[in-house]
Design brief:
The chain contains 19 helices and 19 strands. The chain is an alpha/beta fold. Helix 3 crosses helix 14.
Length: 538
Amino acid sequence: MSPPRANAATELARALVDLMTSAGVAEVVLSPGSRNAPLAFAAWDAVAADRIRLHTRLDERTAGFLAVGMAKVGHHSALMCTSGTAVANLHPAVLEAAHAGVPLVVVTADRPAALRGTGASQTTDQVRVFGDAASFHDVADVADLDGVRGALALLDHGCLPVHINVQFTPPLVPDAPWHHTGDAVQPVMRRREKTPRQHELPLGPRTVVVAGDDAGSRARVLAEAGGWPLFAEPTSGARNGDNALRCYRLLLDGDLGQRIQRVVVAGHPTLSRPVSRLLEREDVEVISVPPRGWWALRPFPVDREAPALTVAGRDDPAWLAAWLDADAELGRALDRLLAAEPDLTPYDVAGAVCRALPPSGLLVVGASSPIRDLDLMAPSRTVGERRKLIANRGLAGIDGTVSTAIGAALARPHGARNLALMGDVTFLHDSNGLILGPGEAEPDLTVVVVNDDGGSIFAMLEQGDEMFADRYDKLFGTPHGVDVASLCAATRTPHWRVDSLPELDQALASPNGGVEVVEVVVRRDNRRELDARIRALG
């Protein structure tokens, strides 16, 4: 006798969850709601069948970035939420995933199409709510899943996020058990990309390689093959080997920088104004290796795009040697300057975090100042040590950084150590990420918060000029006076507060397990002057 049929909403939700697990989705993040109840029950059954791991979060924006963090370390992840403003709260994470080329599945519950535009509770227009940032599929019954199947098959190709908007008609709770017909097949995830045509670069022009976010090892390999300096951002995946420079951005406005004739760009460079000025120079040829993500055009002029590059041999060794010598000398000068400071600086914090990150460790870095501080303090590492540094550089926002770090740590259990580095405003922006309910998976993660009571990055920009001192704090500095220890106590998150380098080193050397916060107190009132002295070293 055939098993009893479930109601339409339950059958549709179960079919969709089956389809996602067959496509390799292993992590599902759920936010509670009524209209998405069929999805919640189907996910529960999938957990019981050992098909997925389920994470529940109260805040959809936090949920979105938790899934982004998982996806950034290689796990296909899906989001599930109810209708209305819940969907809108996923928009920042969807945009980040789209711009960074991170595969993500977003499943939103909706009323039947007949109720759209009628003023029904928690109902808005969710059709293509994320615009061109996601591949959209409006699903009313099981037959509509054929189009979804094709979109999910492309997850390994660096496609846009897949938005599946599911119209559910009550009843919304299951009325028949889920009769499994067999285990879902978990495919081996591979990128099915055609081998691009190789373009050989001629020797001769004074060349440098710029490796932006997610550039990967190909940037390092090319720089070493050509004997060229490598300017690798911390999250490029290329800041290792003998050609990577630490202080490249301080050197670019000097004599060596002016002698550059050709730049090869890989990944998505976003950190440095000197690099941006270099890429905009009319006397410099720019060759771009196209990045992943939703970037139809580069934000700088490109003379040629080439997906795969080779070089005929090594260029004049004197060019690389000049850069390496200048970088080493400038690095020593920077270390002397910081050592002479009477107070702990944000650069000291970034350096301490670098030293605490072992081979195969994970470091998630917040936007604004911390990642730029790290850019000057992170040394080139030995090839093959498999440290992983990630950041939300698709749009370089501060949204969801705590949740991104927790998601990445959860999805990378083999790592030797998980660390996160962020500013106080970034931490406060996603403090909801610390809320973990009973039974939720919790990674070992040390979150280092550089607390200067506000947004110090603006002090180093035009807004921080002395002529705007009377309005700076109100408009940009935004001191908040939050007691971080009390905030952590509210979520039962262990907290250390330190204000010296020995205390910081001790805290980093003695993790307690689980998620913990190390708050490092630094000054903000001298940040502009300190930055000016560092730039003057170049």
